[in-house]
Design goal:
Helix content: 40-55%
Radius of gyration: 17 Å
Distance between the termini: 25 Å
Number of domains: 1
Order of helices and strands: HEHHEHEHEHEHEHEEEHEHH
Number of helices: 11
Strand content: 15-25%
CATH topology: TIM Barrel
Shape: globular
CATH architecture: Alpha-Beta Barrel
Oligomer: single chain
CATH superfamily: Metal-dependent hydrolases
Structural class: alpha/beta
């Protein structure tokens, strides 16, 4: 059982990393074995991984099914972030992968505003509902709202907390009970081992709605995983232990831990 001292030691608090990518340019440079070793040494207990294309995710899951939680990204290769939702072949691709493999989510996908109401994103929301999956959305608040208008029971992980202000994130979390937010590629929540006051208010109001994430969107970012874990533990120690534990790993385990079993 974690104590106050052991939980806040540099390497003591487990990490659930909800935002990792192992795309084709990464697996060509860093082997699945190396990635898994890096994650374990960094104290990452579980990791939700997507990739462009999905082969990278499957490589990591095959290497460490106890560690890796697969998410299905709609990108078959890099460069589709602004075109995937107009691709005539995308839906068939998603349907095929969903038949063949196990996933906890669809995403991370990039979409903004009214584009969320186009036919292909709408079908993706339906597929998430049919397969009981989360949607990992790199989106503005408007697109997130449109997801819930399409499916009020959708479960959405808001990538990067929308790169929005803590006040706006709190507003969205109040409005949507099935919305969670990851903190990937953000640094404004903590500095010098201290939590920003506005973010503290958000964490204290919604301790069960935030998750950590590194966002390995380029191969080089994989080498930042250990540093990100250490940095996260530093600012988390400025929060009450139960809140720190929830953000560090308990929220991720509660949401995704049982969705994909080896």
């Amino acid at each position: 059982m974690l104590t106050l001292n052991s939980a806040h030691a540099n390497d003591g608090l487990p990490i659930f990393d909800a935002h990792l990518h192992y795309s084709h340019d990464a697996w060509e440079r860093i082997s699945p074995e190396e990635v898994v070793t890096m994650l374990r040494k960094s104290g990452v207990r579980r990791a939700m991984v997507s990739s462009s294309g999905d082969e990278g995710t499957q490589k990591l899951y095959a290497q460490a099914p106890d560690l890796v939680i697969p998410s299905l990204r709609p990108y078959r290769h890099r460069g589709e972030t602004s075109t995937w939702f107009r691709s005539d072949t995308l839906v068939a691709h998603l349907e095929d992968r969903l038949k063949r493999y196990k996933y906890a989510a669809i995403g991370e996908f990039h979409i903004y505003g009214a584009d969320m109401d186009l036919p292909i994103p709408r079908r993706m929301v339906q597929l998430a509902k049919e397969h009981q999956l989360f949607l990992h959305a790199h989106s503005d608040a408007e697109a997130v709202t449109r997801i819930f208008q399409q499916d009020p029971d959708a479960r959405v992980l808001w990538a990067h907390s929308g790169f929005d202000t803590p006040a706006k994130v709190r507003e969205m979390l109040r409005k949507h009970k099935h919305l969670w937010a990851d903190l990937a590629f953000r640094s404004d929540q903590g500095n010098g081992g201290k939590v920003d006051p506005e973010w503290r208010a958000a964490f204290m109001e919604f301790p069960d709605r935030f998750l950590l994430g590194t966002d390995t969107y380029t191969p080089e970012r994989w080498f930042y995983v250990p540093e990100h874990a250490r940095w996260s533990r530093q600012w988390l120690q400025d929060l009450p232990l139960p809140v720190a534990e929830r953000i560090a790993y308990k929220n991720g385990e509660a949401l995704f831990g049982q969705m994909v079993k080896p």
